[in-house]
Amino acid sequence: MVIGVPKEIKNNENRVALTPAGVAEFRRFGHTVYVQVNAGVESGFEDEEYIDAGAVMLPTIEDVYGISEMIMKVKEPIASEYNLIKEDQLLFTYFHFASSEELTHAMIERKAVCLAYETVEKTDRSLPLLIPMSEVAGRMAVQEGAKYLEKPQKGRGILLGGVPGVKPAHVLILGGGIVGTQAAKMAAGLGAHVTIMDISLPRLRYLSDIMPENVDTLMSNEYSIREAVKHSDLIIGAVLIPGAKAPHLITREMLKLMRPGTVLVDVAVDQGGCIETCVPTTHENPTYVIDNVVHYCVANMPGAVPYTSTVALTNATLTYALQLANKGWQKACRDNDELKRGLNVVNGKIVYKGVADAFGLPLNDVNELLQREEEEIDY
Ligand SMILES: NC(=O)c1ccc[n+]([C@@H]2O[C@H](COP(=O)([O-])OP(=O)(O)OC[C@H]3O[C@@H](n4cnc5c(N)ncnc54)[C@H](O)[C@@H]3O)[C@@H](O)[C@H]2O)c1
Asked: Which ranges carry the Alanine dehydrogenase/pyridine nucleotide transhydrogenase NAD(H)-binding domain (predicted)?
């Protein structure tokens, strides 16, 4: 198969969809890989490394789209890319269709095959191509929180781990999923006193078993949250209710209970945030202060660490991309339900319920469509 990797052009997106190691894997299976010049440079990968791994560099994004059967990207195509997409071309990237009607209609019109990272789903309902970004954001939440707790950043002026003879900081984590677990490990490793709250008792049992001594687990409810915020220095929002807006676990009125300089890092901001006073911010201007409480609400936290994020993402996407390249998307999706769940739009037809529902558009049966493709190929 001919695979193309364009340079990301969405504002502030520094990741790239394939590393030189990924190129070498495709080459091992006899595929051809075209990479746009400078595509990896913001993630720390020079053109020479891609060439050494067996890629052919192309000067423009038009060249890459024009020659490739499968386009591997990170972010959804933006308007200037729509016309470059060809009928039958396979696009493997994050799409988040339900949040953009314009993108959905554009992809229907282009008659491309859109396989979305975010809906590739395992039988246990986990989302293997979203997990790496939650891991990055969870670990980063503590790093950022520690920074904004410093006095010059308007924080309380407390060191997370304390020093001998001085108490460490208290870190409260709402939600003990992927983000919360990674955040807890980082904060505990730095010596902070950590409390994780979740509504799932099995999850709290698991966390209680694996976490170090300086991590407590607590059932999440309004009463416990209200008590805990009074003596927490850093509060990390990491809840998720799949398919729904995050609940406001910390209300505006609770800010008054917090000590001045408390830092809130609402990682769940991309789902509306679990802190009522949270509004999305950017890496250029990540924080604001309300009632003497510092809010950090960056919606694309992994974007600040493109090297780590690129490698983490491609570690997860590559095995799926290889299946698509080795078998063709039709057979790869017939053989692997995880990949099949990633199909959102196929040759102008919506095949993913969430996208059809979001815009009241007709839903097509993905199995029928794959069956038809098979018959056409056999014929
Ligand atoms: N800002 C960013 O850059 C960024 C990056 C990655 C992920 N995220 C977001 O972070 C959030 C968490 O992601 P995740 O991968 O950890 O999800 P997850 O599903 O692994 O974990 C969510 C946890 O929240 C718990 N929960 C639900 N309701 C709760 C409540 N009322 N109180 C306490 N806990 C509750 C669930 O039981 C679950 O354990 C999501 O909104 C995700 O989109 C943001």
From this structure: 149-297
